[in-house]
Design brief:
112 residues; 69% helix; globular
Length: 112
């Protein structure tokens, strides 16, 4: 499935407040942060409880499920700023490619 196909289908499940111009953006940004936090928390517990063992198929499925929620909120946030998800993904790959070509893939900061 292509990113824009996903975005179109995912938007059919979007039920959240949009009474003002930034309400939808705020809702999706908070949801994205929350779901990313849930993913990170599961990874944290894996580090705490996993005893250095590979994660079980059930844990991997739970992680994938959280990433699906992250994808939904990412898709909706892109929609809220009037961008196709595929365009955002392409922009990111272009940025990473430029950083790699200029020897700045490592490091920190937005403008490397």
């Amino acid at each position: 499935m292509l990113a824009n196909d996903y975005q179109k289908i995912a938007s059919s499940y979007a039920i959240y407040p949009r009474h003002s111009p930034y309400l939808g953006l705020s809702y999706t940004a908070l949801g994205l942060a929350g779901e990313a936090g849930e993913f990170a928390n599961k990874v944290k517990k894996l580090l705490r409880d996993g005893d250095g063992q590979p994660p079980s198929p059930e844990v991997l499925l739970a992680l994938a499920d959280e990433l699906g929620d992250v994808a939904w909120y990412l898709s909706q946030a892109a929609r809220e700023i009037s961008f196709d998800l595929a365009v955002i993904m392409r922009m990111n790959l272009d940025k990473l490619s430029l950083r790699q070509r200029s020897g700045k893939i490592k490091g920190s900061g937005d403008r490397r």
